[in-house]
Amino acid sequence: MTFVVTESCIRCRYTDCVDVCPVDCFHAGPNFLVIDPEVCIDCGVCVPECPAEAIFAEADVPDGQRAFIALNAELAQRWPVMDTREAPLPQADTWKSVGDKLRHLER
Are residues 78 and 34 in contact, defined by beta-carbon separation less than 8 angstroms? Predict the structure, then answer.
């Protein structure tokens, strides 16, 4: 099992999770974070740190978000590792509760 970043992160990209990750499994794109399933050690310390509540254990990813399991694995291979906390995107607080954001994902 691994942890997965889901749709709530899109256009927010809070990095509180990055700050606590002991193995640097987060990768950053322009407006979204992903977890590399090959690096994640399943510790779960990132879950309570996410202000957007976007991180789930793979087995607990909501049905409508299951595509994010493969998306995390795919984009982790393309995007650089993020190992230090950065400021969230400018309108993160506005976007964190918006649904249906996949169309806003920048690859």
Answer: no
The encoded tokens of residue 38 equal: 């090959």
> Maximum distance among all alpha carbons in the chain?
32
Distant-in-sequence, close-in-space partners of 13: CB < 8 Å, separation ≥ 6: 28, 31, 32, 33, 88, 89, 92
Q: In whole angstroms, how far apart are CA 81 and each of 4, 24, 77?
A: 15, 7, 9
Instruction: Give the model confidence (pLDDT) of 42-99 as tens digits.
Output: 999 999 999 999 999 999 999 999 999 999 999 999 999 999 999 999 999 999 999 9
pTM passes above 0.85: yes
Domains and CATH numbers, the chain: 3-83 (3.30.70.20)
What does the angle CA 41 – CA 47 – CA 51 come to, to the nearest 5 degrees?
145
Q: Are 90 and 34 in contact (CB under 8 A)?
A: no
